[in-house]
Design brief:
This protein is α/β, with parallel strands linked by helices. It contains eleven helices and seven strands. Strands 3-2-1-4-5-6-7 form a seven-stranded parallel sheet, sandwiched between helices. α1 links the parallel β1 and β2 (27-32). The termini are far apart.
């Protein structure tokens, strides 16, 4: 039985990944900060022999060892690591103080780095690490700031791991979601400008959902993804790779900063 560690597993993309991998027959160690939310995994992963959870702050120095020790003591192996935990609502560079910078880098770059380092000695040929990055690691993004910096660094870490350990049969890839409908983005999507930026610039008829990302992660953990290494798979409906504008956007009245319609 294969074993997967999923961080940020208490909700959103991490929760979806944990459930999807469990449906493939894997044992899951779900990691998050909220023990109550993590308990929700048990409602969808009904076999207690294939589920363990750990409530821990990933930025704590002892967190990686605690996570790996639990997985190894419970199942004796680690096959997949899904570095998913993250935080949103970044600010542009000139509005980002050192506290925000350190927190974003700590959670979304330092923690995945240290956890990957901890799991590697337990991984055998056929194992894989998947880092959840972002379209903001691909295009930078308005207001990206420390978020873009952290996710961009995670992309670099992905290609390093793929190169350094690929010959040992350990793959590493990144999945870069666009705006996915999750509790983390729910508030932002209420902002009309933010919603338009995503809806009217995506050559697809809908926003992304958690299963879009979870299914991509599951594929990378399946035999079908066994020859994919060092790649970033962008799952955003074409938002970051095209200059698409919807008919609505193309035919709308444009208003410059002075407020006069053009």
């Amino acid at each position: 039985m294969q074993v997967a560690i999923v961080t940020g597993a208490s909700s959103g993309i991490g929760f979806g990944c944990a459930v999807k991998l469990a449906e493939m027959g894997m044992a899951i160690l779900g990691v998050g900060r909220d023990a109550t939310k993590l308990a929700g995994l048990g409602k969808l992963i009904s076999d207690p022999s294939r589920l363990a959870t750990l409530a821990v702050d990933l930025t704590e120095d002892e967190a990686p060892k605690r996570i790996v020790d639990l997985a190894v003591s419970r199942w004796g192996r680690i096959d997949f690591l899904i570095n998913n935990a993250g935080v949103g609502r970044p600010k542009p560079l000139h509005e980002t103080d050192d506290q925000m910078l350190d927190y974003f880098l700590g959670l979304m770059l330092r923690a995945p780095f240290r956890l990957a380092r901890e799991v590697l000695p337990h991984m055998k040929s056929g194992s894989a690490i998947i880092n959840i990055t972002s379209t903001y690691a691909v295009v930078g993004g308005l207001r990206g700031g420390a978020y873009s910096a952290a996710k961009g660094g995670l992309t670099g870490l992905t290609t390093h791991i793929a190169c350094q350990y690929g010959a040992s049969g350990i793959r590493c890839n990144a999945v870069a979601p666009g705006v996915i409908q999750t509790p983390m983005t729910e508030g932002r999507l209420q902002d009309e400008k933010f919603r338009r930026m995503n809806m009217e610039m995506t050559p697809h008829h809908r926003l992304g959902v958690v299963d879009d990302i979870a299914s991509t992660v599951a594929f990378l953990c399946s035999p079908g993804g066994a020859f994919i290494n060092g790649q970033t798979i962008v799952v955003d409906g074409g938002w970051s790779s095209t200059k698409y504008l919807s008919e609505f956007a193309l035919t709308s009245v444009w208003t410059p900063p002075n407020g006069e319609a053009v």
